[in-house]
Amino acid sequence: MDVSAAGRTGRASRRRVRMTTLLCAVAAMTAAVIPASASASRGVDPVVVVDCSSQARMRPEAYLLACGDGNNRLVGLRWDTWGSRTATATGTDMVNDCVPYCAAGRFRAYPVTVTLSDPRAWPEHPDVQRFTTIRLLYTGTAPDPAPKDVSYKLDY
User: Fold this and answer.
1) Which H or E run includes 2?
2) How far apart are CA 130 and CA 84, in angstroms?
3) In angstroms, how far is CA 13 from the centroid of its own chain?
4) Are the CB atoms for 119 and 85 separated by under 8 Å?
5) Global pTM exceeds 0.85
6) pLDDT of 118-147, one tens digit each?
């Protein structure tokens, strides 16, 4: 079967269009990645918070405070800042009242402002900085017997 010159030209043209489209897509993806890698090469690595599963997180929407029994969890976190020294968010602290005992207790919601601070090298990954202190400032009532302003060490 003979292919005409017009048929060959049409296929070559379609190949050029596909190649041009592919090259444009690669260029766009490269441009999106360059700012992130450029900041990493300057030593501006982000600080993380480590969760109960030893996973590094940035700006988590939820954070489990009671790793052993799950009776205290921050939810609906909206991060206002996430910097190299501190991070701040507002959200809700869901605390099990454990009445009459924890398995039968009810989770109660307490509005809270969360501040992460005191970044240190993460022992499992010394090249990564992790926040080591969490401060909870209850904007309404605090769960009994917690004070309205309390800080904890994050040792995970």
Assistant:
1) none
2) 10
3) 45
4) yes
5) no
6) 999 999 999 999 999 999 999 999 999 999
Which helix (H) or strand (E) element contains residue 146?
none
C-beta of residue 51 within 8 angstroms of C-beta of residue 95? no
Give me the half-sphere count of Cα atoms (radius 13 Å) on the Cβ side of residue 83. Answer: 8
Radius of gyration of the chain (CA): 26
> What's 14-83 look like in SS3?
HHHHHHHHHHHHHHHHHHHHHHHHHHHHCCCCCCEEECCCCCEECCCCCEECCCCCCCEEEEEEEEEEEC
d(CA 151, CA 87): 14
Half-sphere exposure of 9 (CA within 13 A, CB side): 3
Closest to 55 in 3D by CA, of 43, 40, 45, 67: 67
- Quote the longest CA-to-CA distance of the chain: 88
